[in-house]
């Protein structure tokens, strides 16, 4: 594997500290979902359906709020958006004091104003890295996201079980405030020095078409497939009485995705994002052959997850090429919404298939859905861009 492209990117001024900062800034939000679930189920004693409702409200808030926050980054600047983290931190710090109804309502409101740290990191990385070197840069960013999802939920569960769910929620809030304060002080640039953002704001209809729409469909399809995979994997091991091995299986998935990101970022010529999405979805269909066996299931999940980080990286690279610099925050915010709504669609879709015919069908249905979405993305990718926005 050729690691030279990664060394070159990391040698660029500001890239290494930015990636370290964003890694730590992304960990607290990744711990939120499992921690809230544990809080509602164990502390509030409301059951998993109630916990799922809070999670759904949060996802809807995030899905609607992500492009709003991205547009504010474009128009008002990063520090204005980071100031809103005071509201986000206040929610998490006071969440242990809320009853279920208040928590449900404010979880939605908090999603609307949550700081989009994943999108901000990608926007700042785009500003630091020239266009020819963005593939390895975005591959490293995808690996960073994988690492945050490996650490965050585990840390949330550890604090919740060793101390209390209330303590875990407070730690999340304080950590978000601390990360936002550091980002506020650093205030990374969000537009590359070679890009011109002067003049009137580009109209959305001029760039939200063709390749950009394809770039948004790719993460939607990827998370439909991934969230369906997670539901079917959980069901497979639970029905076999081997749910204690879930964490091991998820670590294998994250490690495979990170390895795939390294390989993808080292290549000079790669398949397009739509092709990668189709491959990922196609490789999900036979995963059910490992149903009930920890070893077989983990091995069956490796090929699909090898394509995961490359698929996400390809989406971000398309956005960096085709979304105008003055509207990149909005475009990446829409990408965040695509991730969120993909999860919201994929989980119940796979869940229905699992309930009807068992975990293997969950993998098949999620994979077929991903293939259909990849086909839609291919159609949009054939459209011509109205204006040239490549730096």
UniProtKB/TrEMBL annotation:
Keywords assigned: Membrane, Transmembrane, Transmembrane helix
Coiled coil: none
InterPro entries listed in its UniProt record: MFS, MFS_trans_sf
Pfam families according to UniProt: MFS_1
Keyword Oxidoreductase part of the UniProt annotation: no
Entry keyword Transmembrane: yes
Origin: domain of life: Bacteria
SUPFAM superfamilies: MFS general substrate transporter (SSF103473)
GO molecular function list: transmembrane transporter activity
Residue ranges crossing the lipid bilayer per the database entry: 48-65, 77-94, 100-121, 142-161, 167-191, 212-232, 244-263, 270-289, 295-314, 326-349, 361-380
Designated name of the protein: Predicted arabinose efflux permease, MFS family
The organism of origin for this protein: Lentzea xinjiangensis
High-level lineage: Bacteria, Bacillati, Actinomycetota, Actinomycetes, Pseudonocardiales
